[in-house]
Structure formats: structure tokens, C-alpha cells
Design brief:
The protein is an alpha+beta fold. It has 5 helices and 25 strands. The protein has 2 domains: 139 residues, C8orf32 fold (Roll); 204 residues, Jelly Rolls (Sandwich). Strands 13-14-11-10-19-23-22-21 form an 8-stranded mixed β-sheet. Helix 1 packs antiparallel against helix 3 and helix 2 crosses helix 3.
Length: 352
């Protein structure tokens, strides 16, 4: 691969990562099984496969060969490390820290590709730079604000076709910075519900950054909503990068061990819909007042109609990565409210 094939160091690093992650086999063998040893980059390449550490070693070698400074790092939960006495490392994660010209630090996985810098997945972990040519460098990664905020104004016509504007702001781990940087058209694929696909007439990237991305959508759906006789149904828009991507739509009634949450997050939706005179909302939902709140998060849901205006407010915040067994039922209650289908779909009745 020639450096001239790509526009900058980040693009080049991601292309190399894609080759190592997708084309080199991954062997999930614990380090203890290999005597805490790893093969060289050329041995991994020639055998077309390696462990997470070995694939990371290969990725570092290829990045350096392309002129990008990089080194292997090991991440372990802070729980297992003490500054004074060191620690034990039952849960090791190996990544590659690259230093492209456009940004200070880029953390990449050698086993899978992602849409964001992996540093945003390392909150609450201690990272060790494993470079034998340099003194041991230790860094504790703090959690960042992971936020999704969607606001919108829509106007429904008599035929229940609709148009309007949507604004989406994503920051931290959910922000698909790599993906949008590579293909700006992918911004249209971030929304689900009845505002997606052909319903998005135009999308514009107002800001594209590693920490925060802001996107505007012009909505114009020329086909009417799904309907049965005098009733029409509208599935509210949501962001695919949010809690829905965790696939926690159904939780068991009980657990005998703590539940690990992928990441801390704040996700909110505030949408206003203007209805024609002859259409009414038939499934309003009173706000959960006071909002359902506990030590590990909160959720608020409200769907109301005032005259011809319908306002939808949905928000959830999860502020704890591990839910103990003693708090699991409260967490399940919160998630069940967030996942409730009737709060994600509006039902309208035409009176003409």
C-alpha cells in the first residue's frame, strides 16, 4: 500500500487496520497458554494469524513502516491496578496507540474495526505502553461524556405525508467519527424509525470532530404513513448509535451476578409535530414525573398534544457501568420503560 493512496495519516492508519483486522486470522488464545510470549510481526504475517497481542504487534510494524509512530498498549480495569504495588491482570486488552499527524493519540483494535477512536471505550482503565525501547508509561483513562441529542420539528399534511428538520449531536464513544470521515453519506444511515432512508431528502455535516459531530437532516416523505382505516401509525426516529445498539430490548426478571454496561451515556429526544386540523393523537403519555431516577441513572418519557402540536420527550442517562444484583430490578424497570414500544410509536386518528 502506498501512502499516496490515502488523504492523510488517519485514513492510512484505518486502511492498514482494516487489512490486519479482516484479513489476518484471530486466535483468541489466553497469554497464559502461550507462556506469556508473543511471536514477531513477520511470524504472525507469514502464518496469517495470531492472538490479540500478536496482531497488535503486526499492526504496529505496518504502521511504523508507513511512517506513522505506533506502539502496543495493554489496558486493564483500574480495579486490578495500584500505583504503589502494581497489580494483577486477569483481564487484559491489547490495542495499538498510533500518533498520526492530525491528532495526538489514536487507539485502534487489531482484531476488529470500529467507527470511533477506541480511547472512548477505555474509561476506568489503566493503559500500559509496551515499548521495550522506552521506559514504561502508565496512563489512567477517564470516562468522557457520551451523549446523543436529537431535536426535530416536523409538519404533517392532510394526507399524513410530512416534512421538517432534524438535528443530531453525538459526542464521545457513540460518535461514528471514522465512518463519517470516510463516507459523509453514511450520516443518513444513523437514524431509524419512519424518518430514515428515502425520507431523508438531505443531510449536512455541520461539525465533524473526534469528540463531537453535529448533523442536520432535511426530511421530506412523500408517501403517507402506515394506516388502517382511519388510524395512522408513526414510528419515532432514534439514533442507531445509542442504547438500542446494545440489544438490551429484553432483560431477564432476575440475575445472580452483576450486569456490565457497555458505556456511560446520556441519550435524549425532543420532537415537535404540527398536525392538520382533522388529525388527533390517540396515545398520549403523561410524563414520568418525577422522572424515574436512581443511583445509576434516570429515564423520562412524555408524549402530549396541545392544540395541533404534539411534543415527544424521551431521555435516559446511565451513569454506572456495573449494575449490582441488589439494584438489578430497578435497572430493569428503567430499561423496560425506555424500551416500551408504545412510547416509540404514535397513533393518529383522522376525523374527516
Amino acid at each position: 500500500m502506498q501512502e499516496k493512496d490515502v488523504g492523510d495519516d488517519i485514513d492510512l492508519a484505518l486502511k492498514i487496520q482494516e487489512i490486519v483486522a479482516n484479513d489476518i486470522n484471530y486466535y483468541p488464545v489466553p497469554l497464559s497458554y502461550s507462556g506469556y510470549k508473543a511471536r514477531t510481526a513477520i511470524e504472525v504475517f507469514n502464518s496469517n494469524g495470531g492472538t490479540q497481542l500478536e496482531k497488535s504487534i503486526l499492526l504496529v510494524a505496518l504502521l511504523r513502516e508507513s511512517g506513522i509512530n505506533a506502539e502496543v498498549v495493554m489496558a486493564t480495569p483500574n480495579l486490578f491496578f495500584n500505583d504503589s504495588i502494581g497489580g494483577i491482570f486477569p483481564e487484559n486488552q491489547f490495542l495499538v496507540q498510533a500518533n498520526p499527524r492530525e491528532t495526538k493519540q489514536l487507539y485502534l483494535s487489531a482484531t476488529h474495526i470500529s467507527s470511533q477512536n477506541q480511547i472512548y471505550n477505555l474509561g476506568g482503565k489503566t493503559v500500559f505502553a509496551l515499548n521495550p525501547e522506552k521506559p514504561l508509561r502508565i496512563e489512567k483513562i477517564e470516562d468522557v461524556d457520551n451523549k446523543i441529542k436529537l431535536t426535530g420539528d416536523l409538519k404533517f399534511e392532510d394526507s399524513l405525508k410530512f416534512k421538517g428538520q432534524i438535528k443530531l449531536v453525538i459526542s464521545g464513544e457513540p460518535n461514528p467519527w471514522f465512518r463519517i470521515k470516510k463516507d459523509s453519506a453514511s450520516a443518513k444511515k444513523l437514524l431509524s424509525g419512519d424518518i430514515s432512508g428515502k425520507g431523508i431528502k438531505k443531510s449536512g455535516i455541520n461539525n465533524l470532530g473526534q469528540l463531537r459531530t453535529e448533523i442536520s437532516y432535511t426530511i421530506e416523505k412523500n408517501s403517507p404513513m402506515n394506516n388502517q382505516k382511519d388510524y395512522s401509525f408513526f414510528t419515532l426516529p432514534s439514533c442507531k448509535q445509542g442504547i438500542d445498539s446494545w440489544h438490551m430490548n429484553y432483560l431477564l426478571d432476575n440475575r445472580n451476578s452483576s450486569l456490565q454496561i457497555p458505556t456511560l451515556i446520556s441519550e435524549s429526544y425532543d420532537i415537535t409535530i404540527q398536525l392538520p386540523e382533522n388529525v388527533n393523537l390517540i396515545n398520549p403519555v403523561e410524563k414520568t414525573e418525577p422522572e424515574l431516577k436512581n443511583d445509576f441513572g434516570s429515564v423520562l418519557v412524555g408524549i402530549s398534544q396541545n392544540g395541533n402540536e404534539v411534543r415527544i420527550i424521551r431521555s435516559i442517562e446511565i451513569s454506572q457501568k456495573e449494575i449490582p444484583v441488589s439494584s438489578y430490578k430497578e435497572f430493569k424497570e428503567m430499561m423496560d420503560l425506555w424500551n416500551e414500544r408504545q412510547f416509540r410509536k404514535l397513533v393518529f386518528k383522522s376525523t374527516y
